[in-house]
Amino acid sequence: MKSLAVATLLLALAACGSGAEPEPTAAELQLQTCSDVRAGIKLFNANDYAGTIKKFVDAEVTAVAFADKSDTKAADDLLEAVAYYANLAPDDYPEAARSSKDFAKYKAITLGQCTEGGPIDAPEEDTLT
């Protein structure tokens, strides 16, 4: 289902190139990806793991387009991080946050690329950020 959403967005983005609206820039795609990432982090901090996954699935759609458009390691890293969080089972989130090396690695990536003015306010022990 996620692949269908990604394919649909990519087709829509391609179609936009021939229509009246300009195709989004890499910067715009990164901003949208990060907006969804921050929303997902807030849901994680509220212990809404299903909501967290939904926001990361949303972020994955634009992260794919961002990585395709930007051709940078940072964009590829962000896509990898977003995909990890989008595909983590809701019940696995608390334990992964406490003990997974991958969770910590991707946390550093999302923090490095998607925070505005520093980490999002949340309790240290429960925060993805």
Written account of the structure:
By secondary structure, this protein is mainly alpha-helical. It has a domain at 1-20 and 49-116. The protein is 72% helix and 0% strand.
- Main sheet characteristics: none
Q: Alpha-carbon distance between the termini?
A: 27 Å
Contiguous low-pLDDT stretches (5 residues minimum) are: 118-127
Count all strands and give the number: 0
What is the helix/strand order?
Answer: HHHHHH
**Helix run count:** 6
| Share of helix, binned | over 70%
The dominant shape is globular
Radius of gyration: 15 Å
Class by helix and strand content? mainly alpha
Mean pLDDT: 83
How much of the residues is beta strand, in percent? under 5%
Give keywords.
mainly alpha, disordered C terminus, 129 residues, 6 helices
